[in-house]
Amino acid sequence: MTAPITPAPLRLGIAGLGTVGIGVVRIIQAHADLLSARAGRPVRITAICARDRKKNRDADLSGYDWVDCATDLARRDDVDVVVELIGGDEGIARQAVELALDNGKDVVTANKALLAIHGQALAERAEAKGRLIRFEAAVAGGIPVIKTMTESLAGNRIRRVMGVMNGTCNYILTRMQSGGLPYAAVFEEARKLGYLEADPTLDVGGIDASHKLAILASIAFGTRIAFDGVEIEGIERVSIDDINRAADMGYRIKLLGVAQMTGRGLEQRMSPCLVPADSPLGQLEGGTNMVVIEGDAVGQIVLRGAGAGAGPTASAVMSDIIEIARGVRLPVFGQPAGSLARTQPARTAVPAAYYLRLTLADKPGALAKVATVLGDAGISIDRMRQYDDEDTGEAPVLIVTHKTTPDAIDHAIETLPSTGVLVGDPVELRIEEV
Ligand SMILES: NC(=O)C1=CN([C@@H]2O[C@H](COP(=O)(O)OP(=O)(O)OC[C@H]3O[C@@H](n4cnc5c(N)ncnc54)[C@H](OP(=O)(O)O)[C@@H]3O)[C@@H](O)[C@H]2O)C=CC1
Ligand SMILES: N[C@@H](CCO)C(=O)O
């Protein structure tokens, strides 16, 4: 009698044993049988790598070979897939990924920065070598948005992709609202909770979310990743006054990414926007992410879930590993890299309503002068509220416009100081239809 043939295991080399890396190790250790059944073959870690070998990682790593340099994983014969969980768009992460592809290994990564900057070159490299790069965890953590777009929605022409893709910013904005706290205080709170990236500008400056948006736009529109084409504004200038006054008008402020293809080119913008408080995006609390995809056949899809953290992010990494173990082989961005179109970046021209917060000198005719500037720019006022000046001699005024163009708003903002009635700079935020 012949013994049953055991399928060859898929052998992993894991580079990076931090939040996500250890999360992956834990899932593989806890669910070995389940993974094997679903993948059709065992999934094994053969070698691991991090910076500090002596660090207590609260996990049993004794069964795996330790290598001192991540590129060594890419050189090993007993590694089929290099799982890059170090981070950063340059340095060792990039070297390990490139070497892995060159040495005939597939790559799984959660590294949105690397993909946003070098995604096209890496995809071409992978395809030239007949290898894969999978990156479900790179966008919106545990939310399965990459597979949804490349597989489930492959029959659609995508009209628009938008969403909240940075949990830290959403935490800060919702916490400012719930606690009535200023930005600086909540920023400090987020730092103490360990929510901020080592370089916090990546979060609050909107860069991390823009990396993710650029990746989604490439898949959605069949275009080469164009991170440079994202118009980026972070949340640093969002004040507690804006949070409160937007709430008065029935809105929430979110760091919102929007990508859509227009006749003029690809619009990609990441900026604080107002959304209706009762909309799914408006109700998104804390570190949760949400991605909204609009396809011509399917209509609107809303995906919501944890955008970060060991479990959710490792869950997404595992989905890629199982996909490779099953033998599913898809082009990196959903179609061959050579067929991805070059695009022109296009500045947003889609009309929207706008929120304007102005502080005026509290004197006769001040409001009339503002109304004249707006009228001359072709901007019609929908709603307006003047707040108590508390004897300061100043009048805080909030205006919600009817839909108008970004050019008209820019023109009005440039012209308003010439009225001589403005105290400080006006604040202008787009109100996004969702
Ligand atoms: N944390 C999250 O929730 C999410 C993270 N990601 C992405 O996942 C990736 C990993 O993130 P995360 O786990 O949070 O990061 P961590 O900072 O927690 O872990 C990074 C790991 O990389 C190791 N490392 C750093 N430099 C080197 C080096 N030169 N050689 C070998 N190893 C090195 C570190 O080693 P040591 O431990 O010894 O210092 C550490 O184990 C990043 O690309 C991140 O953007 C994506 C979605 C969510
Ligand atoms: N800094 C990121 C981590 C997940 O990508 C966030 O806050 O969403």
UniProtKB/TrEMBL annotation:
ACT domain boundaries: 355-427
KW Oxidoreductase (keyword) present: yes
Pfam families linked: ACT (PF01842), Homoserine_dh (PF00742), NAD_binding_3 (PF03447)
Listed pathway(s): Amino-acid biosynthesis; L-methionine biosynthesis via de novo pathway; L-homoserine from L-aspartate: step 3/3; Amino-acid biosynthesis; L-threonine biosynthesis; L-threonine from L-aspartate: step 3/5
Matches recorded under InterPro entries: ACT-like_dom_sf, ACT_dom, Asp/hSer_DH_NAD-bd, HDH, HDH_cat, NAD(P)-bd_dom_sf
Enzyme Commission number, as recorded: 1.1.1.3
PROSITE patterns: ACT
Keywords: Amino-acid biosynthesis, Methionine biosynthesis, NADP, Oxidoreductase, Threonine biosynthesis
GO terms (BP aspect): methionine biosynthetic process; threonine biosynthetic process
Active-site annotation: K212 (proton donor)
Cited SUPFAM superfamilies: ACT-like, Glyceraldehyde-3-phosphate dehydrogenase-like, C-terminal domain, NAD(P)-binding Rossmann-fold domains
Molecular function via GO: homoserine dehydrogenase activity; NADP binding
Residues reported in the UniProt entry to bind NADPH: K112
Binding site for L-homoserine: E197
Top EC class of this enzyme: oxidoreductase
NCBIfam families found in the cross-reference section: PRK06349.1 (NF004976)
Similarity field: Belongs to the homoserine dehydrogenase family.
Protein name according to UniProt: Homoserine dehydrogenase
Organism: Paracoccus contaminans
